[in-house]
Design a protein that fits this description.
143 residues, Thiol Ester Dehydrase, Chain A, three-stranded antiparallel sheet, elongated
Length: 143
């Protein structure tokens, strides 16, 4: 299962003192990909919280950088489900850089993120909702 978001404009306020994309912005882009993935499966971003009081915080993230991204560049984001566990998902986010006149794209960064189903009532990890697992399995089978 994967989700793609294209042509995210990098703004000057998204960069650090050296005019390079700030790592926190990559985290925001991860959130965009994660919300888009849920939407592509037919769920709103707040569906599992509203129904079960389950959120999906990041427990672990590793980033690997390949190319500088500066203001006025564009980012294409691809989010893929690498693994579905009992209480967590491992997601791979790939960021591609395009400039103002994109003829191609260049790998800018990759992130591997573990998101955990977290029950807001009990304050503990909880099994992934059955609906989510079924939707992920169904989408994997229709590729």
């Amino acid at each position: 299962m994967s989700y793609e978001e294209k042509n995210i404009l990098v703004l000057p306020e998204d960069t650090d003192a050296f005019n390079r994309l700030n790592w926190r912005v990559y985290c925001r882009y991860c959130e965009l990909g994660e919300a888009g993935l849920l939407k592509s499966l037919g769920f709103s971003q707040m569906y599992f919280y509203d129904k079960y009081q389950i959120s999906f915080p990041r427990r672990y993230a590793s980033f690997e950088y390949f190319s500088q991204v500066t203001p006025r560049d564009y980012i294409d984001l691809r989010t893929e489900v690498k693994r579905v566990g009992t209480t967590s998902l491992i997601l791979a986010h790939t960021f591609y850089k395009k400039d103002e006149n994109p003829k191609g794209r260049m790998l800018a960064a990759r992130a591997e993120v573990v998101v955990v189903a977290y029950n807001e009532k009990t304050h503990k990890k909880t099994p992934l909702p059955k609906e989510l697992v079924e939707a992920l399995n169904e989408s994997a089978n229709t590729r």
